Structures are given as C-alpha cells and as structure tokens.
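Same chain as my last thread, 639 residues:
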Amino acid sequence: AGLPGATLAAALAAAVAALVTIGWALDGGSFAEPAVVVCAGLAALALVARTADLLRDGRIAAMISQESQHRFRELADRTSDVVLICDRDGIIRYASPAVGEYGYTSAELEGRSLSELVHPEDRAAGARTVRAATAGRHPDRFPCRVRSADGTWRHVESTVSRYREVNTPGQLLITARDVSDQVALRRQVTYLTYHDGLTGLPNRAYVEDRAKDAIDRAAAAEPDRPSAQIGAVFIDLDGFTGVNDSIGHGAGDLLLAQAARRLRAAVPSGDTVARWGGDEFAILVESAASAPEIVDLAERLAGIIAAEPFRVADREISLTASIGVALAGGRALGHLLRNADVAMSRAKDLGGGRVEVFAAHMHADVMRRLEMASDLRAAVTAGKLELQYQPVVDFSTSQVIGVEALVRWSRGGQPVPPAEFLGVAEDSGLVVPLGEQVLREACAQAAAWRGAGLEIGVSVNFSLRQLTAAGFAASVLTALDETGLPPGALTLEVAERVLIDGAGPMADGLAELRRHGVRLAIDDFGTGYASLAYLKQLSVDVIKIDPSFVTGLGDDATLAMLTRTIIQVGHDLGIEVVAEGIERPEHLDLLREMGCGLGQGYLIAKPMDAAGIEALVRSGWQGTTVPGEATAPVVAPAK
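reply #2:
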C-alpha cells in the first residue's frame, strides 16, 4: 500500500527544496558541486523514505488493532463466561452477550457502574483487585457475589487485568464465571460434615471444634476479667438398644429425633446441642454464669427425658437418661468432652437414670477397665478362661439333673470378680466370642458326661448382645453338632429383662432353636417388669426364681407369698420352676412345702470343676452339703 498523494508530494517537495538550499549555501550564493548536491539529495530522499515507512507502520498498527479488537469481540461473544471492559472509574464500556444468563442485555449494562452489581460486602476486595490490576500486577482470581436482574445474588469467580487497547488506554478487562452450583455443593458438603443427618443437630466434629475454640478463648482470657463458665453435658438414653432390637432401627431413629427436639428446646440458644453418636448427645455450655447452673441444666434435662414417654410406632416408650457433667477449669480444661463422657459412663454403670459430675478418680477407673479389656481379650484368644459348674438338684430324688456353666478368670494369678470382667466384656463386645467359647466347652463337657452314662443337662447364660449377634442361632446349632450334644440337653438362660427388651430381634433365633429341641429358661425371674403377666406369652421351659426372693423366705411374708405364687403359676402353665440362692436349710424346707421341686445354691453345692460334678452325680446329693466359700455365677453380666 502506498502513501497518499498529497503526503508524498509534500515529501518530494521538501527533498527538492533541501537540495536547492544546500547547494546554494555551499557555493556562497551559487549552486554547489554536483557531488555535494547528489549526497544532499540522497540524504533528503532517505528522510522521505523513513517518513513514509513510519506512516505506513502506523497505518498497519491501526489495522492490526482493529483486527485484534474484532477478533476479541468475536471470542467474547462466543464464550459462556461474562466478559466486561471497564474504564478506570468502573464504568462498563463493553459487556459480552453472556450477561444474558444473569437477565441483562449488553446494552443495559454498558454505561453502568460495576459497583452497582457487586455485593456490598465484596466491594472492598474487588477494589483491591482493581488497584492491583491497574498497577500491572498479574491478574488475580477473586470470588464475589453479583446481582442478577431478578435481584438474586449469584456467586462468581472473577479475574481483572489491564486491557491493552491502542485507542483506549487504561481500560480493564474483567471475566466472570458463575460458580453458584459449586458454592452450593461445598456448603452442602460442609453442612453434612458438621451436622447429623437424622436429627439435624451439629455432630461430634462440630462440637469438638467449637469446644476447642471456647477453651482457647477461656485460656487466653485475662485472669481478672470474669467470664462465663464453660462445661459439657453428655447424655445417653438408657434402654435405647432394646428399642432398636425390639421394634427396629426405623423406630429408634424416630425416637432419637424426638429426643433431639426435646433437648434443643430446653437448652439456651447460645449453647450447642449435638448428637455425639448412637443414642448419645453432647451439650457444650458456654453461657452459664456458674458451675451449679450447668449441673442444674443436666438435672433438668434428665427430668425432660423421663417426664413423658416417647410415641413411636403406635407405642409409648418410657426412657431415662444417664448424664455426665464436666467443667472446664484447671487441668481439666483440655479434656472437657472426655471427662463428660467418662462421667456419663459412670452414671450408666451405677444403674442409669442419674446425673454424675466428673471427678478425677473416674478417669483412673476408665483406664483400669481399658487395661482389663485388653488383658481379657488376650485371655479369650489364648483360651485361658476356665469353666466351673453349679449343680441343679431334684429335691424329690436328691439327684443332680443339670448344671449351670460358669466362667472363671484369673488375672496375674488373682481371681477377678465376675461382675467386673463380665461388665467389661459386655461393654467391649468381648462377651460374644467369650460366650461362644463357653458354649462350645460346656456342650463338649455335657456330651462327655452323657457318653459316660451321666444323664445331666447343661445351662448356659446369654446376654442381649449375644442373642442379637449375627448368626447366633447358627452358632448354637453348630456347637451342638460339633460336640454331639442332643439339643434337649442344652438350656439357654436369659434374664427376664433381656427376654422382654429384645423380644423382636432375637425371637426368630430363639424360635428356631426351640424347634430343634433346645430349652429356654427365664433367669432372675421376678426382678423385671414382665413377671407373671408375660409368662403365658413367652414360650419358655424353665423359670428360675431370683435369689432375692429365696433369701427372704422365713423373714418376709410378702416374699414368701410371691414365691408361692410364682411356683403355682409355673406348675399351672407346665413350666419347670428352679429356686436359686438356697443358702439355709429353712429355705429348702419352705420351698419343698410350696411345691418347688428343683433348686440350686450354696446349701446344695458351690460351683466346682467337672470332676467335682461327676463325684456329686455318682454319690447323689445327701441334703447335708456344707456350703463352700460363696462364689457368684459368672457367665452373663446378671450372674
């Protein structure tokens, strides 16, 4: 492309004039030498050529700029991201068609201030980003909220950089991508991370984080400045496992949701109510004026749980709560939640339905139980537990007709009280493998006796956890098959409260075992809430009267009347009745007079090894056995 005619003519005229002027000057008023004139002309022509080049480059640059701008607009029009060009004052000069996703047209936005669209809380961050871009720094991404045409706020991720345009310097190029869906997803994930899906309450992770923050604030507080008392309240619903096992986990979930609503309504709004896990709730108290106020809250919550039954699956279920309280102070500051949990466990160990405040010795007790659980696990794995047997005698024949299998454990050469290690076994879940071990050994021993001509049966105690374990019925049948013991020679002893609480989940397994001929006994009868009213509904073969009834015979007329009634009802229903805890001759005489034909207790014989049972069976019980050292039965926690 050539230069315009007028421009080129002017350049040539300037060159000729330069030649003439140079020649005249060099000759003192006359024309210069031809060589000088030629050189001067060439220089002038070079100047003309350079001028022409500059003019041509300017025109090419303008054409390139126009082409770049055209291509930029084409790209901006096609992308799904919003593209804006603004001047330094934030006035929008160009808006890509993508703004239509926000309900605007490009024409509606052009000429408006960018600040009108940005959320007030995000404007300061946006201004800092604009200043950085104006200074030529690398473009930064920053999140913000922008208002769509319908007034809603959309989350976008934006970048700001300088827009280098020849004709319009100082402009800014802004791109924005809608990330509202990603923000909503992140919020949902965060919510689920820190909240319980069933109750809607914060979960364990949330309350742990909040407790840490509260404790950090308390630790950093000035000593002379009064602050609110921080504490934790842990709540466990007593008997909830029985609800799940009897009427199903769906009903249990409904009950938990009701409990959560009761607790949330009773706790001040400034404190945190969380579901700790299972049927446990945790409350972080941050606004109490004093320690007694936290204890009062715990007592009030215990009353709220027990005050009225929960309505689930057309049933009314009454529960109590075991509650532990811990206060943040001194060395306990960093162990607030742990201490409340320990106190709650203590309340549960003491029978539930009570509030316990953490004391230092409780943690030592927990550590001792953990150590015992570890040693017990090793003993079960190594098969170092032993069985003893307590005989059941037929009063009419003085013959031993059966035995109750009882497990013993010596730890470091010292016998461990049954209530201690069986409670640990139940809490830790060891009671399931321990029970299977006891069952196999007891069946094997009973089969050996029967093979030797001693026709005696064996009873084995089972807890609710054992009865509801997966494959319970199959494990019993396998033990019978492997040992060759006839099913009718095995009696499963189940505490009355267990049989009622767990009626649903274990009913099928027990029914299957009874179809195979295995017998079922109600242990500790008279101590639960089923008693005589449920005997007709329960398919059982044996009633074992609780020792608390027998030991009162001769001293308490009411106990004597109740014992007589139990024996009579059992006979009327065709159920065998066994009296436990016979310790004095007068007990035996009264039971015989009431018509009870079977019994066991220290008057008859203390628990003994297999050889002792064999000797007693062969010699027969003479009714004059001297009581040995009392040793409690130990297969199930109730024993």
